[in-house]
Amino acid sequence: MTPTIDRSKYVTLGVIWLLLLTMPYWLPMVGGYMALGTRVVIMGLAAMSLNFLLGFTGVLSFGHAAFFGLGAYGTGLALKYFTHSTPLALVLGVLLGGIAGAVLGALIVRRRGVYFAMVTIAFGQVFYFIAFRWNSLTGGDDGLRGFERQPIDFGVWQADILHRPILFYYFVLLLFAIGTGAMGFLLRSPFGRTLLAIRENERRARFLGVPIEQHIWLSFSLSCFFVALAGGMYALLNNFADPTMLNYTQSGEIVIMIVLGGIRSFWGPLIGAAIFVVLQDYLSSLTTNWMSFLGTIFVLMVLFFPRGVLGLNWTEMFRSVLGRSRQTRPQEGGNLS
Amino acid sequence: MAQVDRRTVLKAGAALAGSALATPAILTYGRGESPVKLGMVDPLTGVYAAVALSEVAGAKVAVEDINKKGGILGREVELLVEDSANNVGTGVQKARKLIDRDRVNCVIGDVNSAIALAMAGVTSEKGVLHIVSGGHTDAVTGKDCHWNVFRVCNTTTMDVNGIADTVIEKLGKKWYFLTPDYAYGHSVQDAFIRKLKAAGGEYAGDLVPLGTADYSAHLIKAKAYNPDVLINVMGGGDQVNSLKQFVGFGLNHQMAVSGTLFELESLRAVPPEALIGWWTMEWWWDQPDNPHVKVFVDKMRKATGHTPSARNWFGYTSVWTFALVANHAKSLEGVKLAHALEGFKLPPEVALQPGTPYYRPGDHELMSTMFAGEAHPAKGNPDNMFTVHSLVPGEKAAGPVAETGCTIHWS
């Protein structure tokens, strides 16, 4: 660990948070709008949650949309039937998605690789069809409606997150900070280091006496709790929840965001989500063939930059570019003179 | 003194070019006499793409028409089309984009009922007029109706009532249902059964999972029940597959087949042997007695190369509705427009059908005539695949407002 690497980490962190905190001020100037920025942050949290499992434990779940959707339905149903408190509804949504993930996780941790991915797809589709078919509770194909995010009362001051998109953005950003902070803290702990060891070499970790299944289960469950938080916020953003949120295609989108941004990097999935959401928004206004463009970009990324945008070693690249230019400069000058 | 090298110059050039690209976005605000903007959100990609693109084509022709005739309040009309990608989150986001960033005065869409319902939440909160062009679920102008939401296409219940009487009268009262097993299918079947019970008929039926490829088991049961009519509620590819197998089994010699919708876009996509059965058309192009329809058909054929479908008409009528009511109310304000639209009658050149359709005050549903008839392989004209047998007025099909479950709350 050289100090330069640490410094570059702090620079990344600083730039990301500066951009996120000032988003409401610069976004409209570049043609964006608040709902787009909020969606980037929410999908970013969803992608980072899945990457906790995929990038840092080395286990691919293709059914995370189910827990994303359960978080959304949990929050929506709570707001519709039990409570007028947005935070409480979110907590209930997170518990629904997280506990469902923990229970299912316990059933499937012994599977590996493609088998694990297939079982997660299957369980994900189970929840999709429950949401799709249970008309009386979930509204079926028409989606769950009839709830709205409620203003948050602080006693002296009421944050009207319903009518003021900026306040809702900062509410989402606060929860994003809590979620990513918790994930970062977990990954720095001995537990997180053990997850990395499992990712690098499961057999060796097992020989060292690490209870593998228990760790993968914990990682899966935690990841489900975080993705359910993202889902809950997504339901609040749209004031709506619908079955396609639980579909495996949604899981696929989250995986694409991770790969675009960088599978081994902590902040990569946020960048991937930003690229995906913004490109989708921008390209789909121009052409109905936007999926081809997005797909091409994805294929090119996978072929040439398999570690994603943040997986590139930017410092190394800058240094090599600068170094080369320093070497070539006299030559250029010579040619010019 | 520091030397300015080539690299710095290049970087500065790139930065300048970048800022030049970014500035138009800033400058578009604050212009004086800007066009009246109209936003349309439809699933241009995904399973509804064909019908959504038809709606957009109709809307574009309407915008051209309106601009030729002096625009809205003397200002030019501009249509902004956004793809909802058949995804609720994207649809809601696009509605916000159109309202927050592009400042549209009216939002049209979506074909997907769930997206239409979710968008209604945004448009009603923002106080913008919202015309649902092609999402059929009852809730849009029923339980989940909003003060600012008006709908051009029919409710599913209307589609059932549009054909049910014809089926009972002409085909018989013993029915067998082939119903897709989800909310839409259930509600359509229930509406059919209500009509049948009132007429004193009998029925049996099967609930079929979505995406079923093999209907033999269901068709054998239907054959054994020996009904007068097989009521086929399946949609899209399922509808086509089940109809082909229905004919393949020779059941068409034993019983009739009927259902709610078999849209022109679908009729075009199926092989001739599946062109069979009794259906409702929400609008049909072949109305020889109506000169306005001929003008519209020619216009659409010129613009798209195709004979217009009901979806073309939905898009066309949605845009015209906004233009007519804005010019009538001399305002672009959501609340004023919504009040003016209650009971608003469409003129014959926009209505393009017998009778005078109007937006019913109680639930904001357009009371338009339905065309019940029979599908058949094309005769002469390739788009002549349907013969209208009876016209059903909208009010009759819709039933009283009290039954819709809609109460309008003005905000």
Query: How much β-strand is present in the residues of chain B?
Result: 15-25%
Helix vs. strand class of chain B: alpha/beta
Given the C-alpha coordinates, what overall shape of chain B results?
Answer: globular
Structural domains of chain A: how many: 1
Biggest interface reads:
A-B, 42 and 41 residues
Task: Identify the CATH homologous superfamily of the largest domain in chain B.
Answer: Response regulator
How many structural domains can be distinguished in the coordinates of chain B? 2
Low-confidence stretches of chain B: 20-32
C-alpha Rg of chain B, in Å? 24 Å
Q: How many beta strands in the DSSP annotation of chain A?
A: 2
Tally of individual helices of chain B: 14
What share of residues of chain A is helical? over 70%
Strand order of the largest sheet of chain A: 1-2
Mean pLDDT value of chain B:
87
Q: By helix and strand content of chain A, what is the structural category?
A: mainly alpha
Q: How is this structure best described in words?
A:
Chain A has 15 helices and 2 strands. By secondary structure, chain A is mainly alpha-helical. Chain A has a two-stranded antiparallel ribbon. Chain A has helices spanning about 5-20, 25, 35-55, 65-80, 85-110, 115-135, 135-140, 165-190, 190-200, 200-205, 210-240, 250-260, 270-285, 290-305, 315-335, and strands at about 150-155, 160. Chain A has one domain (about 30-305): Orthogonal Bundle (ABC transporter involved in vitamin B12 uptake, BtuC). Residues about 325-335 of chain A have low confidence and may be disordered. In chain A, helix 8 packs across helix 9 (about 190-200) and helix 12 (about 250-260) crosses helix 13. The radius of gyration of chain A is 21 Å and the shape is globular. Chain B has helices spanning about 5-25, 50-70, 90-100, 115-125, 155-170, 185-200, 215-225, 235-250, 265-270, 290-305, 310-330, 335-340, 350, 395-400; strands spanning about 35-40, 75-85, 105-110, 130, 150, 175-180, 200-210, 230, 255-260, 280, 370-375, 385-390. In chain B, about 50% of the residues are buried. Chain B has 2 domains: about 35-155 and about 290-370, Rossmann fold (3-Layer(aba) Sandwich), CATH 3.40.50; about 155-280, Rossmann fold, CATH 3.40.50.2300. With about 400 residues, chain B is of the alpha/beta class. The radius of gyration of chain B is 24 Å and the shape is globular. In chain B, helix 2 (about 50-70) runs parallel beside helix 11 and helix 5 (about 155-170) packs parallel to helix 6 (about 185-200). In chain B, helix 6 links the parallel strand 6 (about 175-180) and strand 7. In chain B, about 45% of the residues lie in helices and about 15% in strands. The interface of A and B includes residues 28, 32, 132 and 240 of A.
